Amino acid sequence: MRHNSILSFEEILRLMRLSTQIGFRRFRITGGEPLVRKGILDFLHQAAQLPGVEDLMLTTNGMLLPEMAFDLKKAGVQRVNISLDTMDPERFNDITRGGDVHTVIQGVFRALEAGLNPVKLNVVVVRGFNTEELPKFLDLAQQYPLHVRFIELMPIGISSEHRTDFVPIAEMKELLGLKEYFPTQDIPGGGPAEYFRPSGFKGSIGFISALSRHFCDTCNRVRLTADGKLRPCLHGKHEVDLREALRDGSSDSEILELLVQAVWHKPVEHHMNDEAWQDNRVMSQIGG
Prior knowledge:
By secondary structure, the chain is α/β, with parallel strands linked by helices. The chain has one domain: Alpha-Beta Barrel (TIM Barrel). 33% of the residues lie in helices and 15% in strands. The protein has helices at residues 9-20, 40-49, 65-75, 89-95, 101-114, 134-143, 169-176, 242-247, 252-264, 283-286, and strands at 26-29, 55-60, 79-83, 119-125, 146-152, 194-196, 204-208, 223-224, 229-231, 240-241. It has a 7-stranded mixed beta sheet with strand order 1-2-3-4-5-7-6, covered by helices on one side. Strand 2 (55-60), helix 3 (65-75) and strand 3 form a beta-alpha-beta unit. Helix 3 runs parallel beside helix 5 (101-114). It is globular and about 60 Å long. The model has no long low-confidence stretch (mean pLDDT 88).
């Protein structure tokens, strides 16, 4: 994507400031990988200082966390989600095209040391790929104050070609083999995860069921893409072009009206269960 196609930090901050006027309080910086963008720490500091911003979060692949975790905390980031689908070095290297899982695991513990609380691990479960690793992730949540979230594979982008690899939440729970589950609601966040804290665990486990039991009726999110398109639904193709409004001289009130209308037009539910993904974007381009 050309540089001038991407929203500037100033444009993102303007949208954040305006959105707080209509009730937005929680903001997650995602990507792609947000930590590779030049000037990210200064932007995060400014975002955290905006009136009305109560919760500033970040989703990352964790590769740069060993060196940046404490700076993120100082900038005002309160908590992080780390994408970690496998802890097997060869598998991780393969799916990340050269990544080092040991660096990410080091970043997980640096985030804990820095006080980015809670630290959540996002694990997309794929049949035949990482299902046998689920007990290892369970061990992490038992031994450390980490919150591991097992996520159903969504048919988006390349994933739409792998529907047979889908593992429902009910099967994940069987694979984990836990006898006792204690629901807990003390994990900060407004997302769709259903959390449990097994007896003796320092952390928790969560399940995000996008397909087998979708959570559309409680969805409280809209997504702003890097090129300034607001998507009311992750799976929906409808986008609102905020970049054009930001750059054509539109007033604050006109941009606010676009935000309001986008929220009012959130669809009742997604159709991932019965529709193939038909979009010119993949998940990393949406901020999913």
